[in-house]
Amino acid sequence: MNNHLKIYRPMPIDEEIKFSKKKFIVSKTDINGTITFANKNFCDVSGYSEEELIGAPHNILRHPDMPRAIFFLVWSSLLKGERVSGVVKNLAKSGKYYWVIADFDVKKDAEGNIKSLTAFRRAAPQHVIDVMEELYESMLNIERRHGMEGSLSYLEAYLEEKGMNYEEFLDDLVTPKGLLAKLISSFKNMF
Ligand SMILES: Cc1cc2nc3c(=O)[nH]c(=O)nc-3n(C[C@H](O)[C@H](O)[C@H](O)COP(=O)(O)O)c2cc1C
Asked: Any residues with Cβ below 6 Å from ligand 1, and which?
């Protein structure tokens, strides 16, 4: 039985969910992006139960304010077997939104085949949200008129102006410092 067909997308409302920067949200998916694991913080913040999340496509959290180009970049890296980061505005079950910094990773079996994909997320600080909100709004507007290729070109030009590639830009913006960095790296080792 596939009870996930019953999940419909919530109507977005312009209200933000803020959560502790020490609350890490973790999920795993199979190669198709179907959720196979969700930690308690994921359930608490998104408002979905574990039963609703497991077996559901990860795009149930997709917020309409997110440009498609960002997920295209994430999936392109993961399918090449490369880890990648992103800043994502997510849609909770209530229709509210929450911003995360997400580190995506690839787990492989002994033969080197992709076994699972993981995402490790933390709350995005306001200065990160401010930068990404503006960038995504421009990308989304271009995407509506010129498709994803248009928004990818826009992103490329935006990064070129900063003299950075996507990874350097994110690193510069989101890399945690000090104690938080230590907390994050020890927590990540648990998954
Ligand atoms: C491990 C993993 C975690 C993901 N987490 C999210 C997420 O938190 N929010 C989200 O919108 N998409 C997430 N995605 C991307 C979705 O699979 C999907 O590509 C995205 O929501 C865009 O939806 P669409 O491909 O149907 O347009 C994740 C993908 C993977 C592999």
From this structure: 27, 29, 33, 58-59, 61-62, 68, 71, 75, 78, 88, 90, 104, 117-119
